[in-house]
Amino acid sequence: MGHAIRIRRRLLAVPLLGLALGAVAYGLWEPDDDPPRTRTEGVAQPAASRPTEVVLEESGLRWSDHFGMELPISPVHGPRSLGAGLAGGFARTPSGALLAAVHIVVRTAPQWGPKVFESTISQQVIGPERDVLLASTRDFYERKRAEMGLAEDAPLGPGYAAIEAYRWHSYSPDVASLDLVSAGPGRHGVTVRAATRVQLHWADGDWRVLAPPGGDWGNTAAAVTSTNGYTLLPGRR
User: Fold this and answer.
1) Known InterPro entries for this protein (predicted)?
2) Angle between helix 94-107 and helix 114-124 axes, rounded to 10 deg
3) Which residues contact 106 (CB under 8 A, 6 or more apart)?
4) What stretches of the chain adopt beta strand conformation (E)?
5) Is 147:157 a contact under the CB 8 Å cutoff?
6) 169-193: pLDDT as tens digits
7) Is-contact 119 203, C-beta < 8 A?
8) What share of the chain is helix, strand, coil (3-state, %, to 5)?
9) Burial degree of 228 (CB within 10 A; 0-12, 13-18, 19+)
């Protein structure tokens, strides 16, 4: 199995599979795999200014359960609508873009089943690699579902992982780029972390996530040893 394929499969922890979170979109990595070492360079960056001291407002922020993962919800910045597997209605602000990145990327994971990842990728992910991302996610899901003997469309299992922090690269009302740091259990009880680059575009009245190069989130992921240099998400339980 190629290194890039292993990284792509390292997304959100599924205890029944013995997987641990590596890269938010999700990149799950199996305990016996090597963690991702480098991020693919040459990813196009939007022409926008880097936000200065943009911090997600803690006032009114709450954390909601999503198949075992805690995701932040803001009454001001979104998501304002939750249903049919989707999270939408994000504000056209840096905080809105950040929350969109968290919710959309998490929902592209195969763990939650096609009722979540298919609608999310089809409706909230854009770019030339979207169909590749959808196809590879379907393939991974179907193979794991068959191995586990689960019913059609059933979730693969809960996610014991967390989105801990972020770091901005650029923002404008039309495009945004940031890193999300995810963490999950690795071998021997050691927490493993990865930073995943996420790019967003404002389209049709909401933020959309640009599909990663090659339809593989592992191509934008890099292992990190701590959250130093990143901004922690506030109020996380």
Assistant:
1) DUF8175 (IPR058488)
2) 140
3) 12, 24, 25, 26, 66, 69, 71, 163
4) 20-23, 27-29, 62-66, 69-73, 81-83, 86-88, 125-126, 162-171, 175-185, 191-203, 206-210, 221-224, 231-232
5) no
6) 999 999 999 999 998 887 777 888 9
7) no
8) 30, 30, 40
9) exposed
